[in-house]
Amino acid sequence: PVLLEMRAITKEFPGVKALSDVNLVVRRGEIHAIAGENGAGKSTLMKVLSGVYPYGSYSGEIRYHGSESRFSDIRASEQAGIVIIHQELALVPGMSITENIFLGNEPRRGGAIDWKSANRQALELMARVGLREDPDTLIKDIGVGKQQLVEIAKAFAKDVKLLILDEPTAALNESDSQHLLDLLRGFKQRGITSIIISHKLNEIAEVADSITILRDGKTIETLDIKADGVDEDRIVRGMVGRELHSR
Ligand code: ADP
Ligand code: MG
Ligand code: MG
């Protein structure tokens, strides 16, 4: 069953056509990779999906859970369970893990923020991502791997159904990357659909069920990795366009 369909998405910036008639179909419960060279339009496509670029600023159609979705902003897409973690993490370095997880969304009691409850909930969310730290630790005092986990815990605080990770392992070392990929597989077991932007073929092979390849703002093709395996040559040719492919 299909969870998400983006049809004929076209998005222009002044002087740049970032996306032209891009299509993306994501099945419920899968891990879907999006690959493409720098500038291919991967981040822009996910920003369209998550309401960073609202309805009206692009053309084409987004169908989510079978109905047309016109997100007016990031909050609207988050209310639908779509949470994006951007390449540049959106954490406040001088604030604690708990404060970052709930930023702007803190549990309240009698009108005031209930920090005791926030810390307790933060610990539960941190356990779900395998992050063992004191929740009062400041973001600037933990490494990028753990910061990425805080972002994912934050996504769970928002009740995520479709988790979008934009090049999540780009700045991570081998063991932090492995932990993250293991987590994605665990989330899948629990019914969470993920989209992972990556150009690392080894990690695509390891976690992805399907892959959509973008080049120069266009969809090249979608491959079913689960069924057909990873054809590395084909993926690379799709990304760099050294050979043309029939669809
Ligand atoms: P990718 O994530 O695949 O590296 P992007 O989606 O970031 O690619 O960018 C696609 C194209 O759109 C690039 O040519 C990029 O320079 C351009 N672009 C992206 N964001 C903006 C923006 N806010 N303003 C102008 N051009 C942009
Ligand atoms: Mg880029
Ligand atoms: Mg990008």
From TrEMBL:
Residues 4-241 form the ABC transporter domain. This is Xylose ABC transporter ATP-binding protein. The lineage of its organism: Bacteria, Bacillati, Actinomycetota, Actinomycetes, Micromonosporales.
